[in-house]
Design brief:
This protein is of the alpha/beta class. 30% of the residues lie in helices and 25% in strands.
Length: 246
Amino acid sequence: MKLHRFFIKQEIDDSPRIEITDEELVHQLNNVLRIKIGDRFIFLDNQGNEAEVISEEIMKKSLIFSKEKVKKKSIKNEVRIDLYPAVLKKDKMEYVFQKCTEIGVLKFCPIVSDRTEKINLNMKRLEKIIREAAEQSEKIYLPFLLDVASLDQLLCENETLHNMYYLDMYGPLLDVIQAVEKSSISDEGNGSHRISIFVGPEGGWSEIDRKLFLNNNVKPLSLGNVVLRAETASIAVSSLFLLGKK
């Protein structure tokens, strides 16, 4: 039987037991799943540690579990995608974050470009959607979600961005292998190739946006002679890098 998986706030260490006091998780386990003594779950700490646990004590505001199996996992020799999608309408944005988390995107930063029509997002809801998608698709790391940023400020002030591309149907056709080979080894020291991808709004990139990309060494990439909706483009390019590489 497949076990429910949950990211927890504390680190999974060598201690034999773990106490869960997070109000939201306690509520979900107690009132939604109706946990019983002896129920098994998998907990993850977003640091690569995974533990199979058994419920021992059930209280209203806390739960105590014994650890049965603890594993340390890591991502090596992988492509890591940082996705910078222009802000879309609520349902479309939620769909992008859900599906791209399932595919394996590890960092999201919604952006406001020149033609972005909507600028407000419910970040708490997006965090929940990302968490649930990561748990259900058995990810070992929870993607980072950064606050909404304007494209010009992000490019002009952030010196940590590297290996940057923006989707543009008029750009050169995407060659995943070539793009990965050109990417530098990431700072994590685990052999990953980290690539940043910008996806435009429903109205496309403006000349102001294109000038920003040119001045900040962001290279254009095309998915071919097709016109995709903004949400489809984010999912398509993430799939090509993270699933197509195999």
